[in-house]
Amino acid sequence: MTTFASGTDTLTRDALTVLQPGFTGTTAPDWLLRRLGEGLASVGLFGRNIASSEQLAALTAQLRAERDDVLVAIDEEGGDVTRLEVRTGSSFPGNNALGAVDDVELTRDVAAELGRRLAACGVNLNWAPSADVNSNPSNPVIGVRSFGADTDLVARHTAAYVTGLQSAGVAACTKHFPGHGDTAVDSHHALPRIDVDTSVLQSRELAPFRAAIAAGTRAVMSAHILIPALDPDRPATLSPRALTQLLRGELGYDGLIVTDGMEMQAIAGTYGIERGSVLAVAAGADAICVGGGLADDETVRRLRDALVSAVRAGELPEERLAEAAERVRALARWTATAAAADAERTPDSEVGIRAARRALRTTAAEPFTPLTEPPYVAALTPVANIAVGDETPWGVAAELFRLLPGTETGSFAGEDAGGTALAAAGPRRIVAVVRDEHRHPWMASALDTLLSARPDTIVVEMGLPQATPRGALHIATHGAARVCGRAAAEVIAGA
């Protein structure tokens, strides 16, 4: 039964309702349960909150014991960005792998199974899929999180993903509106700027969002990016032109608009989270995502008070805040109905590995003979972006060890990576694992060193396969999920 603390006025409840905060720990802290009783309607989960599916189910049950209609959100894209399997790597390939296969039915099936697993754990809102067209191959934050660089391909797979996920009773949150694919800056660190004219914006960036809206996406996440052709002054998250005029008006979207994380430096470092949250709601956002970094009661109090004060000062219309809160409640009602309708979905535990195998692209100068002896896996490891995080394992070493016991591995980076890896490998056959070789000159140089000394080196590219394939065998996995590593290892070992 939903309860509200006595004495909590409507304005304060609405201000709490539009927040989507995070917290630390694998059980709900007392302050969070108290806020749910006062009107908080959503909670965001991250990798730090998840130890197992059983623990996650217990956590969401704990939240619903306090408020039965709470929205429990998660950033579970599958592929490189996984929270459900943060400690093991994902059972599902990410968007780029699905785009490489280009089978919309497969994309729908993958999203449906991912949604089924989330729903079984009590999660009913997923901050996915990424609908960004990765038109800039040097993009530091999107990359394999995108279905690809072709607009039509991204649009049809975005729609399929939304349909599949929501068929499992989990609301999709299509991101990052109006499109983060053409950026050279990570909005976690600074404010990206996209200098394209309106015709490019309409034909490229917006097409996947139109497809998602047509597919019935229940939520859309805004991006902290500045597009001068759209609004020369404010990033999309804070722009009425972007959220109200374009998304609501021109595109006809009437679902929930969620902001990207407000503690990201594109907002926190320019406007501050309190002012940014007020401007976002005023611009048309309905839910404020915060908690990836700031995950405590003080943050919730600060944002609640900022919204209440803005209404009382006449800076934020009370009707706009009430409208936003009602959209949150409307989504909660939809999830309750959708979850009941999907109670009997049949599991498909193998769909992820099937998709990962189909996504592989292999290139060899001569017919490849699978390995029968354990190799040395040299992982040329770049710094992970914040969205992916550095806590999730990746690569092929663990899967190769399973198939070829005795396989050894090491991680290398920097100017001397190639020489150091050669010395560590000794006489063993080398499997060099890279991630976005085209973005890291030191990585390309390390591969030069390895291939010069050991032409029989096998290369596994687990990022965007933009660099020219090379090595005795080159395997492009289109992502670094655990199943992508497994599929590559099967080819290397002939399994």
Note the overall shape.
globular
Strand order, sheet with most strands = 2-3-4-5-6-7
Helix share, percent: 40-55%
End-to-end separation in angstroms reads 53 Å
Class by alpha and beta content: alpha/beta
Can you count the beta strands? 14
Strand content: 5-15%
Mind telling me the C-alpha Rg? 23 Å
Average pLDDT confidence is 94
Count of separate DSSP helical elements: 18
Biggest pleated-sheet summary: 6 strands, parallel
Low-confidence stretches: 1-7
Could you characterize the architecture of this molecule?
By secondary structure, the chain is of the alpha/beta class. The protein has helices spanning 10-17, 30-38, 53-66, 95-101, 104-120, 151-167, 198-205, 207-214, 240-250, 265-268, 273-283, 297-312, 318-341, 351-359, 397-403, 417-425, 441-453, 482-493, and strands spanning 19-20, 42-45, 71-74, 125-126, 171-177, 219-222, 256-259, 288-289, 361-363, 376-380, 408-412, 430-434, 458-461, 473-476. The strands form 3 sheets. A 6-stranded parallel beta sheet has the order 2-3-4-5-6-7, with helices on both faces. It has a 6-stranded mixed beta sheet with strand order 9-14-13-12-10-11, with helices on one face. It has a two-stranded parallel sheet with strand order 1-8. α6 links the parallel β4 (125-126) and β5 (171-177). α4 packs across α14, α5 (104-120) runs parallel beside α6 and α6 packs parallel to α8. The radius of gyration is 23 Å and the shape is globular. The model is unreliable at 1-7 (pLDDT under 50).
